[in-house]
Design brief:
2 domains; globular; Alpha-Beta Plaits; 3 helices; alpha+beta
């Protein structure tokens, strides 16, 4: 059974979706379903409470809007570089998965691109 609903996305993303749909030979609904499923599965990992090891990538056009000292209990390593006018931040995180998700959620709100990858 399928559920139909409307979603608004930026024009550039709609164009990318159409292009990728043609290249992969999938209709847009199937492609969006696969992307949403992958996103949900990735976040579910962090929502089930456990001791976790992960990498967090945050790309922004300005500095981070967070006091990272608050999260020093989960930050194992941090690297910050400037590339092509962007701030690239890489964190290695270890600790409570819910705390890691909280940290990632706060950082990703004002980012251009963000990614959270389990390392185990």
């Amino acid at each position: 059974m399928k559920k139909r609903f409307g979603v608004s996305i930026p024009d550039f993303l709609a164009c990318e979706l159409d292009t990728l749909s043609k290249e992969c030979g999938l209709d847009r609904s199937r492609l969006v379903s696969q992307a949403v499923l992958k996103y949900i599965e990735d976040l579910k990992h962090y929502r089930s409470k456990h001791d976790c090891l992960g990498a967090c990538l945050i790309v922004s056009d300005k500095g981070l809007d967070i006091d990272s000292d608050i999260y020093k209990d989960i930050i194992v390593s941090y690297n910050h570089i400037h590339v092509s006018g962007l701030c690239v931040n890489v964190f290695i995180l270890k600790g409570d998965s819910e705390r890691i998700l909280e940290f990632y959620t706060k950082l990703s709100k004002n980012s251009i691109k963000s990614m959270l990858v389990p390392l185990h």
